[in-house]
Amino acid sequence: MIRSLWAPLAGAFLLAAGAGAARAAEPQFTPNACKGDYAGVPYKVDCGTMTVDEARGDPESRRITFPVAIVRALEPKGLPPVVYFHGGPGGDAVESVPARLKRPAAKEFVAVDQDWIFFDQRGTGHGDPGMDCPGTALTDAGPPSKKDADGIIACLKAFQAKGVDLTRYNAVEIAHDVQDMRKALKLGQIDLYGGSYGTRIEAAVQTHAPQGVRAVVQDSPWPPEAAWTVGGPEMVASSLYVVMAKCEAITECANRYPNLKARLRTTAAKFMAGPQTIGGKTYTADDLGGYLMDASYFAAPVLPQQLSKIIAGDMSPVDEFMSSRDYYSEGQFMTHLCKEEIPFEQRAGIKAGAKGDPVAELMVAPMERIHDICAAINWGKISPIEQQPVKTKIPTLFLAAEIDPGCPPELTEAAAKGYAGSQVVIVTNATHGVAGTSPCTRKMVRDFFLDPSKPVERACLPAKDTPMAFVY
Description:
- The protein has helices at about 1-10, 95-100, 145-160, 170-185, 195-210, 230-250, 250-255, 260-275, 285-300, 305-310, 315-320, 330-340, 350-355, 360, 365-375, 410-415, 435, 440-450; strands spanning about 30, 45-55, 65-70, 80-85, 115-120, 190-195, 215-220, 275-280, 280-285, 395-405, 425-430.
- It is of the alpha/beta class.
- Mean pLDDT is about 95; it is low at about 1-20.
């Protein structure tokens, strides 16, 4: 049905994004060639661009765009398409579609029997505007230096000077973009699949624009009521301590890396006392803290090994992390946090909560800088609903990892209470992004979308007392 629309519409969309361009009365989808290396991809993929108003409802609004890639089902069964929500905020999806589709895991649940729709959320990826801030670094813990924070503030103000309305790049606006896309593609129903901060956008869809949504999967959920910075350092430390406890429970791991928790706390205290020069290079508490947050997201099986190296003075794991701290569109990251997270948190609470644990204290300064950035910009009216738990009857499957410093499972369990008939799956020994590493949960996703009313099969999950397979 979608493809049949493209030929008659192709000549109608001679729109240019930006102020002063010819405006269309309605959001529009323009088909175009897919970008990237699709050689060897076993799917048919159709691509295009959505054009919408930056300020929805404003007759003088500038027009903005975001790319879309529609992966056609290998064996369609008449199911609604799945709309995919990338994480971040400030991540992207469309550029990585070819690589994603070439992974063996994708064939287990992506576009097997229903189309999947990937898009870059407004302000990021290959959208226009793209709100990247070159020359600055940013992690989930925040800017690793004051210089980075100042650079992001200057970047945001430069976007404003170009006419970008920073108050329009957030979960609520993206939720309405999804509805615009659904209507432009003439879709009756859609399913949603999101990971990490993408689940926060799904929650906004379920709250603000649920029309046509049949079923939702949230992988590694971040609920609206969660606090990003206040309590954030403790969540990271707690996740690290879970991994260390699992190591202590295994004789070989405990013998190789004895007293790991105490030794890490001693090392963290040294960094909190001041920068450390190791091997001729100087490292700050922010460097070590950012590494610890990132590593506990994804590297739990090798974490005892890497921590032992760092404690012994081998900073190569931190060096590798520091070389890749530019994985977000920093501007879009901040437009979300400053509109829907930080207004509901107190800067002083960050330090107060982490006090007494040197590992948690490593994350305090960069998280405080997030508040400093938000304070430098006027974000307009803040709505309290953005911190309220979701109440919905849309069938929702939650997939949570046991080990997750950013989206810990207890947040999922609490949030799910507002989702009538929801299903919560917590995977032992798993880390952030459950479906990416768990064939069991990938099958759950497919089965759930086939029939959201049925309980998913859990027999394939590891038992709660399953030892973690560490890399030595």
